[in-house]
Amino acid sequence: MSAAMIIGAGDATGAAIARAFAAQGLTACISRRPRSHAALETLAADICATGHQALPFPCDARDEASVVQLFETVERDVGPIEACVFNIGANVQFPIIETTARVYQKVWEMACFAGFLTGREAARHMTPRGRGTIIFTGATASLRGRAGFSAFSGAKAALRMLAQSMSRELGPQGIHVAHAVIDGPIDTDFIRQRHPDFDAAKAEQLLLSPDAIAANYVMLHQQEKSAWTHELDLRPWGEKF
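RE: above sequence
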């Protein structure tokens, strides 16, 4: 059985990505921080209830030893990892004079350093086989920094450069590395709590659907080598560029 590794399998987008890859016949190996173990168990059970395969793997993606062990465990006990998605968000907003060193470093660890560890370990296992897909979830902040998002923008921009470097290095070795710019609000509880016109925006289809994002990730994984996409921007039809 082959596996799809989902790092950052949260309740909305990450869960949708896990379901989408499981529907393709891969075992969805879903991971998020250990304190969310119960939520992981629930998601895995929900996927299995649909007749597909999923397994929970709590892990702090910022901890090198834990990430190394996670990939080794999945490769040994589940099967070869054919697709790996890094989907940790770390979206926080602070005025620059209120942004502490601890906040800045933690956001970088979550949104960038954890992506490096994930991408490196995925590459270590995929390159000997000469195949595999690694997808990094980006954001509007990957391309431009809004006021109040210095930590998030810096981390997401760095993640984008990581993806570019890996793509140039690993593409000739048969590994498809892609970066998805999620350029707009997603239909999630997190956005509902922060979007002043959430219900109106949803009614007008001005929010990204987690299932639609997931379908695009599966599409990236299934692309033929002669026409690989490295960067894909996804936005609702009414979102301004």
